[in-house]
Amino acid sequence: MTVAERSSRGCLQPIIPSGFERADVSFGGASAEPRCEPEIGEDRIPGVIQLLNFTGSGVHLVARRPIGVRVWREDDDYFALNETLNLSAMGPTPSEAVRNFEHELVYFYRCYQGLAQTQVMGLARQLKQQFAELFVEA
After folding, report:
1. CB–CB of 101/69 below 8 Å?
2. What is the pLDDT of residues 16-75, one digit of tens each?
3. Cβ-contact 109, 82 below 8 angstroms
4. Nearest partner of 75 among 100, 101, 42, 98, judged by Cα
5. Residue 3 confidence (pLDDT)
6. Coil, strand, or helix at residue 132?
7. What percent of the chain has pLDDT over 90?
8. What is the C-alpha to C-alpha distance for residues 127 and 123, in angstroms, rounded to an integer?
9. What is the mean predicted confidence (pLDDT) over 96-124?
10. DSSP calls for 63-131
């Protein structure tokens, strides 16, 4: 699998790991077509996928809106990151990095669900609220 390919317009296309597909999503009237993003370097080429379903440890979560996950390669590892949720994961392939990201997301969802509002503060309180607003168990 290549890290990224050039479109007919010369834009970098995001990494779409096997077993995942690109979400056809637009926000605020913006087109779902990928924008041209500058190259960061051959070992770190930007790509964002949109995910709605997350499964791990017997729990299936559905996002109320698509969750953007940036996937890139550094050396021999692939990374998946969502800065809003303060979550990242890595793996030997893009697919593994995204699957590991899913497991981390479900793990933190369950942790935050098990905590009372009085048990968290600062960033943890904000993240608990975000997880509660963004995800529902299916």
Report:
1. yes
2. 566 655 554 433 444 444 443 333 333 444 588 899 999 988 899 999 999 999 998 888
3. no
4. 42
5. 41
6. helix
7. 55
8. 6
9. 94
10. EEEEEEEEEEEETTEEEEEETTTTEEEEESSHHHHHHHHHHHHHHHHHHHHTS-GGG--THHHHHHHHH
Predicted TM-score (pTM) of this structure: 0.68
Give me the residue spans of the domains in the chain.
1-138
Contact 61, 89 (CB under 8 A): no
CA-to-CA distance for 15 and 65, rounded, in angstroms? 20
Maximum C-alpha span of the chain: 53
| Distance of alpha carbon 99 from alpha carbon 107, whole angstroms | 12
Q: Measuring CA to CA, which residue among 32, 31, 38, 50 is closest to residue 12?
A: 38
3-state class (DSSP) for residue 134:
helix
Asked if 138 contacts 118 with a C-beta cutoff of 8 angstroms, the reply is no
Which of 112, 85, 93, 76 has the alpha carbon at shortest distance from 20?
93
User: Is the pLDDT higher at 25 or at 14?
Assistant: 14
Query: Does residue 91 contact residue 69 with C-beta atoms inside 8 Å?
Result: no
